[in-house]
Amino acid sequence: MKNDLWYKDAVFYQISVRAYKDSNGDGHGDLRGVTQKLDYLQTLGVDCIWIMPIYPSPLNDDGYDIADYYAVDKTYGALDDLKELIQSAHERDIRIVMDLVLNHTSDEHPWFQASRSDRNSPYRDYYVWSDTDKKYTDARIIFVDTEPSNWTLDEKTGQYYWHRFYASQPDLNFDNPKVQEEMLNVARFWLDLGIDGFRADAVPYLIEREGSNCENLPETHIYLKKLRSFLDEHYPGRILLCEANQYPEDVRPYFGDGDEFHMGFHFPIMPRIYMALKKGRYEDMAEIMRRTPTIPENCQWCTFLRNHDELTLEMVTPEERQWMWEQYAPEPRMKLNMGIRRRFAPLLDNDRRKMELANSILFTLPGSPIIYYGDEIGMGDNLDLFDRNGVRTPMQWDNTPNAGFSTGTPFSELVKGELGYQQINVASQINDPNSYFHTIKRMIAVRKKHTAFGGSSMEWVETGNPAVAVYIRQHSDETMLIFNNLSASAETVNLPDKYQKTTVDLFADHTQTLSEKLTLQPYSYLWLQMPK
Ligand code: GLC
Fold first, then answer.
1. Distance of CA 321 to CAs 185, 215, 243, Å?
2. pLDDT tens digits, residue range 357-393?
3. Atom of ligand 1 nearest to the CA of 308
4. Which residues have a catalytic role annotated?
5. Could you give the CA distance from residue 326 to residue 486 in angstroms, rounded to a whole number?
6. For residue 379, how far is its CA from the centre of ligand 1 (angstroms)?
7. What is the pTM of this model?
């Protein structure tokens, strides 16, 4: 595991530890459960796992409200279980990154308890306090469905504290050098344990300044660069993955000159893949990819179709958002904040062709793809559950009671109906060579065999047909020609002369000689390698 640029062509996989596998029958998934499933993840072809927060927490925001940065919540196991998970993963050449929540703590964190106890507390300045709630009024509210303000009055000390998320998640004050130092210590602790890096949560909001929207401020970047140089100095090869739900031009500064984040999620391409599938046209995807700036050679985007949050529609216009809600959230309860709280398979009507096509796009775009647990089998969601819990239900391992997730009483209801575990589960899909799981596995394998996909270049090919996304991915001596037919009908494209060659179909392993016209079946895709 020597290659320091490993993340540039890695396939990632996101796990909610609570929902993945319960090893001791208490109804909660745990770290040992994840360790037990490493063989499965290796079979799938995953290179790196992102585990969601496992810190002690009152769970007002599923662990993104941290009460202790130096421990594992006992429902997930102990520090030794994490060490064992890391070691067992490394034996399989799989890396593990975890969440680093810098922006805020839980209101139950001892720092906040001390901070709110007294205006003169040495911890007062660890958080952002104000006599008025009229400061920073240009900052938007993120959890619009639940939070009326970014300020909450603390009765006892008579001041307001600042929070970008739930009121139970007070923002740390990154203008305080002690806070900056504390968070470096937190990073050190987990890196010393062997973790391969962090998905750094909600980084745009670290610093507040009057007259700004309090996002992406220069001082925020100064701190993040410090964090990066700390990693480079002491832990080369470990990575920082940036969660900044922003347009590509605003994420670009998070890569710095290759001296800030190694990776950044590409948020805006995600809803545009769903838009393209519904409209049967690729233009929105092309537009955002053209708008995506070049990033330094040692950096990489991270692309995804779904994650543990709502399918966020912050990075589209208000009209597009409305349209997406109409198309993909026909029931009001499917909406949440600025997004849609549904999983991948139900969003795409559990239509195998559309699901494969969306993945064909994901796996051939520039950037390292990340799969949200369960989406590799197309499991469903449970809309009866509150907030985002409906997309964080227990993993569907087999068709035995509780989906093979737990022998106890699961912490959550499972998915019901046609996408529940009786129909959709790992065991049955592994046994069926034609299953969706095997298609995803094959896509991962093909992608990993070819360096072209880890490169940064992407060139659109004009074919006169707006329904078919055709592009070239080229890197070192490999050139791939990719076709994705977004339409529900068969579509024909006109191919420029230079592509009328004998190519290799990367899935069928046979050659295909291209001529002037090529017809693609509804929702079909084709990955071809051009002759060298
Ligand atoms: C990130 C997480 C989300 C969490 C929020 C606050 O956006 O993805 O789940 O609620 O940060 O920590």
1. 40, 22, 21
2. 999 999 999 999 999 999 999 999 999 999 999 999 9
3. 9
4. 201, 243
5. 19
6. 22
7. 0.98
